[in-house]
Structures are given as C-alpha cells and as structure tokens.
Specification:
It is a single chain. By secondary structure, this protein is an alpha/beta fold. The protein has one domain (3-224): Glycoside hydrolase/deacetylase (TIM Barrel). Helices cover 35% and strands 19% of the residues. It is built from eight helices and eleven strands. The strands form three sheets. Strands 3, 4, 5, 7, 8 and 9 form a six-stranded parallel sheet that branches. A three-stranded mixed sheet has the order 6-10-11, with no helix packed on it. Helix 1 (43-52) runs parallel beside helix 7 (181-196) and helix 6 packs parallel to helix 7. It is globular, with a radius of gyration of 16 Å.
Length: 225
C-alpha cells in the first residue's frame, strides 16, 4: 500500500497509544482514525469510546465550533488526541483569495491555541478541495484520506462500520465526521473489530513518525511537496 513511502524510513515509526513503546508501522497494523467538522455535542461520547480502547485519533476541527465547544477540544488534546486545522467556517478554499485562505487558517489556529495552548500542525482542506494556490498558503502538511466512510451521506451506524471494516488496510487514514450521532455510535464496533484484527490506533502525525513531511495523502498514495 505504501508504494514510494516504503523507502522513507521516518514514516515507518509510530507510537503504540496503548503501550507508548515504539512500533514500526511498516510492519505493524497502524491506522489513523480522523474526525472532521467538530467539535460538537457528540464529541465527548466519542472521546469516551476512544478511551476505552486507548485509541488515539486526529480531530480536524472547524474554528467556529471550537469557539462553541472549547472544553471539548481541551479534553481531546489532554487525552492525547491530535488537533488539526479544518478552517474557520468550512469553505472551499480553492474558491477563496490568498488572503481569504490565510484568514480561514489563522482564525482557527487562534481558536485552537486558546483552547489547548498549541497551534495545529496539520491542515485538512474542506471537501478535500486543494490546488497549488491553496498549498502555497501554508507550509504545513495538507492531509486528505485513503478511506472515505461516506458517513455524512449514509447516516447509518451499521453501514458506516461495514464500510470502514471492509476498506481498512495497514496505514489507512480513515475519514469520519463526529458531528453525526450515527457515526459516533459506529465507533465502538470499529474499535472492537479492528482491535481484534491487531490494529494500533495512532494519530496522523504518529503514523508518519511524529514529524510528517509536507505531504498530501489520498487513495493510499503519498505526494511529496
């Protein structure tokens, strides 16, 4: 699955969230669960499910929602989850001016830092909409995904879980949305089944050795920038 990434040794080291011992994600079954568009009223329940399995995830948050739920973001960060920037109001960044893109990212950075004390290291563009002009607006990794659960379209917990379990592979970055209660209800089944299959749940940064390169990740391919 890794293709060209197999030659990049820094990408192969992650931290097992349960044991804090080094794990080689080229050999072990590492997977990154990512949650977009929150935080929201169901995110605390999701944090509980993740804690039961000592799973670490990455939350790509919308800045205006961080302002509404700063305590949720603070708890997620304190629990060891990664907080990424998903813009302030979820626009298509390719339709904005350079100043507009910078503002969307900067306002969310400020909201996350106010809640957690740290600035997000990763960016996920809404809708996966990305072009060269947008990529010039930040030096941070632009992270897409390799498994789309379509949970925003199919608000059905069983369907979301089946799609995830059918599509996951070692090294997958899986896209969920924690603003949907049906998605949050699907997560215990996902965690239980993948744990039995021997998967380790890591953040996106840990999937890439704790220091991701400037990348775009989509469909299992790495594109260096």
């Amino acid at each position: 699955m890794w293709g060209r990434a197999a030659t990049l040794e820094p990408l192969l080291t992650a931290i097992d969230s349960a044991t804090a011992k080094p794990v080689d994600c080229h050999r072990a079954k590492c997977v990154a669960l990512t949650f977009d568009d929150g935080p929201g009223p169901y995110t605390d329940a999701l944090l509980h499910h993740l804690a039961v399995y000592r799973a670490r995830a990455t939350f790509f948050v919308v800045g205006q929602n961080v302002g509404a739920y700063p305590g949720v973001v603070r708890r997620a960060y304190a629990a060891g989850h990664e907080i990424g920037n998903h813009t302030w109001s979820h626009p298509n960044l390719t339709k904005l001016s350079a100043a507009g893109v910078r503002s969307q990212l900067a306002r969310t950075d400020q909201a996350v830092k106010a809640a957690t004390g740290v600035r997000p290291k990763l960016v996920r563009p809404p809708y996966g909409a990305l072009n060269a002009a947008v990529r010039l607006r930040t030096a941070r990794p632009m992270v897409l995904w390799s498994v789309d659960t379509l949970d925003w379209l199919h608000r059905d917990s069983d369907r979301v879980a089946r799609k995830t379990l059918k599509s996951v592979r070692p090294g997958s970055i899986i896209l969920f949305h924690d603003i949907h209660p049906s998605t949050v209800r699907a997560i215990p089944r996902v965690l239980k089944t993948l744990s039995r299959r021997g998967y380790t749940f890591v953040t996106v940064s840990r999937l890439f050795g704790g220091d991701p390169p400037h990348i775009v990740y989509s469909g299992g391919l790495l594109s260096m920038t």
